[in-house]
Structures are given as structure tokens and as C-alpha cells.
Amino acid sequence: MHSNKRAIIYLLWGASIFLSQYSFSQKNTTQGIAFMAADKSGVSVFIILKDLPKQRFLFTVPEIFTAVGLKEGLFNYDRQPWHLKGNNAEKQAENGLYAYHILLQLHEEGNTFWVNWKITFENKSTQSLYDLAAFNCLNMNYADYFKDTAMTRTYVKDQSGKTISVKTILKTQGDNKRTMQFYPVAGGIEDLTKNTWPNGWGVTAPTLLSGNSMWVESVDAAWKIETIVDGQVAYFFNNWEADHGCIHASPLLAKDLKPGETSTVTGSFRFTKK
Hints:
nine-stranded antiparallel β-sheet, globular, 11% helix, 18 strands
């Protein structure tokens, strides 16, 4: 009898430990990464990491939607606020012709922390949108640990799939645009001259790239930050200056988004401690 009681007590004790650990793990799913509003408007939001307390990562998903023939793009730097709720953030807007909805979710596992993004775009107009892309920005103006004005720690894959630094890529450089550059991607928008807004900057590289991500390493190579598209990349972009620093992997929403159609794309911003 006593041995049975002891066994039951041990069983209950073990179960309580398991449940308390499970509860703790659920409550602390994203203790290492969080959103932080940059101001009261909620328009600008930082990604912050517990292990990088002096670094803040500003993001814009997206800065603008680009497509063939759209000189000003769509929803150009719009001021819609993010609605933050724990590990989630979302926003949406429409203008009568087009509408979008964006959902962000925080995750972490081991030494990897990431923000999943999901963009849904609806064409309510009577005209097709061709080569529709989202110009997603991950900005390191407030993260000096990752600034790469020399462009030696920012990486992509060339057309053969080999990893290269953007420093080595032949570039087209206009006046006062020393590092700003668009990079066409195989399977995406290979001829950016037809895409009015990107082409208007006059800084499109003549080199075709591949892959679905662009990434940068910290100054001591201890961290890797990646902007990733789950599907087809439309084009890559970087802008590294003394007062600026950002990387972009722009998802291709549709080659031809017909009237009444909706397209959804997904991807992530990933922070990995090596």
C-alpha cells in the first residue's frame, strides 16, 4: 500500500513538473524577440531582440507595391498604423481600386528568431497588374552592429547559386547613389526597365541573381540577418550609406493579377545567432 502511494505521489509530482515546464514554455514562446512602436502613431515599428539590446531593426512591409506602368507605385509609403497585439501585428488599407492586408507573427527556436510576414493583395480595378511586387524593407539605421557601408558582409546568390557579396557585383550607379542598387532575379522581373518605379532610380545592376534571400552578417560574424521570400523573388535591393542601411528581398505577387483576383505571398525576417 505504501509503495503504491509513493508511486502515485511520484507520478503526480512528475506530471506537475511537466505541466509547469510546458506552461512556462508556452508563456515564453517569444521572450527573445518583440515588437516595439517607434512612436505613438504606430506607423513605425521596431523589431528588438533580447540578445542584441542596443540594436533596433526598423521594417516596412512594404514601402510600396510596384508594377509595370505604375510611375508612383501603389500605396507609396502609406501611413497606415500597425495594430500590435503580443506576438502579432497587422494592418490593411484600400483605395477603391486595390486593397491589401498584412499579418506579422513573431517566432523563436533555439538561437534563431524570426518575423513571419503574409501579404494579401486584391485587384478591384478593371485592369490587370503586371509584375506586381512588394518592396519589403529591413532597415539597420539603428543597428550599427550590422551596418555594412563597404558591402562586404551583405550576401546573395549569383545565377549559378554560388554565394557572393554584393560588393563584387557590377553595378549601375547614378549621381549621388553610391551603394543604392536593384538586382534582377532569375524567374522574377528580369527586365526591370519595364517596371517604372524601380527603373526610375537609374540604379539597376546588369547582373542576374538567383535564390530567395539576401542577408548580412554582424561585424564580428556572430549573427546573421536574412530577408527571405518563401516563393519567387521579384528583385533584390540594398542601400548602404553612412546615414542609412537596408536590405530588401521583394516578393513577386503576380506576373499578371487580373481584375477581381487576389494574390498572397509569405516570407520572413530571420535573425540567427551562430
